[in-house]
Amino acid sequence: YFLSGEDVSKFTMNKETGVIKAARELRLEDNGGGDDTVYKLQIQATDGGKEPKSASAELIVKLWPRHLFPIITAPTDTKFTLSEDVAAGRVITKLSASSPKLGAVGGVRFAIAGGNIGDALRMDANTGEVLVSGGGLDYETAPQYEVWVEARDSDNPPLRTVLQLIINVTDANDNPPVMESSLYNPMILEEEPPPQKVVRVKATDADSGMNGRVTYRLSNDGDGAFSLDTETGDIFTNYRLDRESVSSYQLTVEVLDQGVPQMTGTSTVLVTVLDKNDNPPRFTRLFSVNVTENAEPGAFVIRVTSSDL
């Protein structure tokens, strides 16, 4: 986002979120002390395409006397820290407000005015309670929520007063580790001296810190034929493999995070053992044959057979 216009010096704009704030205190006296002080701004939004496209709009900010606006009774604290796995419906805080206007136009209702990423929060329009919504908080989406809440009167046009709440979110172990592949198909030559690296399995975990740190283990190691580096996920042979004895192995790798409760994932590794010319041909029996003397050249004598593993 980009902000411009004749009154741009009086405001600031977050280029990422689009939030506009006053750069300094705004006063009615700036324009002669009347009740119709107006600031005109131009807003431009530009996308991130290869050939960026943009759109613009005009923003008119009208300044009204302070005494006409609803008065929010600020809670004891406006900064909160919650775990991302906090239950839906949890009340974070409760606001109260009143309007200086009399009668029906002075009725105040509450709403969330901005910063509610992913609709993680909701606000009771009548009671002023700010609650965790059904979707809940998500540390991976937003470790901090800067939420603007408003108290709005019932006049026409309605006037509103806003208050910012800061909600810091701590990580919970709510994401299991995920293997990059559910099935690996490595191949290795037989009779190679150990340890020979067969394959590296890899997993990721969307959580942070210890909740996102993963280690590996073999829950099926091919009867001791293989071992695994618990930190890197590298699988090695423990001895020389013999294709003539076992031509393939099915291993099971388990990945574990370090959170509480611990979460896991699994993957299958199918190891194919490739043949090497490590066995000479063998005759299966002794051969004996009688041949008539004076046999013609090219006369059939015998067919011998052998086998090779």
UniProtKB/TrEMBL annotation:
GO terms for cellular component: plasma membrane. Residues 1-77, 74-179, 180-283 form the Cadherin domain. One of its GO terms (biological process) is anatomical structure morphogenesis. Pfam families: Cadherin. Keywords: Calcium, Membrane, Repeat, Transmembrane, Transmembrane helix. It comes from the Eukaryota. It is found in: Membrane. InterPro entries: Cadherin-like_dom (IPR002126), Cadherin-like_sf (IPR015919), Cadherin_CS (IPR020894). The keyword Transmembrane helix applies. SUPFAM superfamilies: Cadherin-like. PANTHER family: FAT ATYPICAL CADHERIN-RELATED, PROTOCADHERIN FAT 4. This is Cadherin domain-containing protein. It comes from Homalodisca liturata.
